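Workshop exercise sheet. Pairs work together: one partner reads the sequence aloud, the other fills in the structure field after running the prediction. Swap roles for the next sheet.
Pair: D.N. / O.F.
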Amino acid sequence: MKRSSTACSAAKATVGVLSFALLTGCGGGSGDDPKASESPRPSKVSPAAKALGAAELEKLLLVQSDLPRDKISDGDDTLPKSRSELKTDKAECAPLAYALTGLPPGDTDAGASNSVTSEERVGNSFDVTMTSVGLSSYEGDGAEKALEAVSDGIAPCSGGFGITAQGEEMKITKVAAGKASGQGDDSVAFVLDADMDGEGTGTFTVEAVRVGTLVSTYYSVDFASMQSGKASTVPLPVISAQVGKLTATAR
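Structure field:
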C-alpha cells in the first residue's frame, strides 16, 4: 500500500470540515456494513455541577507525553472557533456538524480542541491517521443532553445535509449509526459520507464520549483507508488516552 502525493500533502492539512477540499482525489466509496450506535447509559450527575471554561478545558487536552509515539498539535486556525460560525441546512444535523469540527455538540460555547497524528508502518510505507479531538463541559445534565442530541440527529440526517463555515460549503451525502468504543459513561458514534469536491466520496467515523459533565469528540482521516474505499476509523488509543485523562480529573 503506497500513499499518493495528494494524500501526503493532505496529511499536513486540517482534519476538520474545511480539509475536505484539500483531499480531492483521495475519496473512496462508503461501506455497507451495518453498524450499531452505542446507546447512552443513564448516570447520575449532580444538578449543581458547574461547567469548565475554555482555559480549563485546554489543560485537559492530550499533550505529547500522553501519546509519545504520536504528534500532538494545537487546534487548527482554519476551523470555526464557535458554533455561531458554522451553519447547517437542517437544524437537527447541527450537533453532528459540531462534533465533526471539534465544536461542543451541546448547548455551550466553551470548548477546546487539538489534533493527534498517528503513523503506522504498513509494508514499505506509513499509514497516516489524523484525529481532531474536541472537549466541552456542561452544567447539570447538559453533557447527557449533548450526547442525546448527537444520537437523535443520526436518523433524521441519514439522507445527508449541508455545512457552511467561514465561506466554505460542504455536502454530507449520507449518515449512519456507527459502533462506538463504549468508553466513558456514554458513547455514541456515526459514520458519514462526504462529497470530496466532486471527486467521489470519503467515509469517516465520528465519536462522542461523555465522562461526567465533560464531552470529548473525535473525527479521524485515515489516508490508507480512504484510498482503499474503507471508512476512516478513530484510533482507540487516542480515545482511551483522552477519556483516561478526563476520568482521572473527574475523580
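Discussion prompt: The longest strand covers residues 125-137. What would you look at next?
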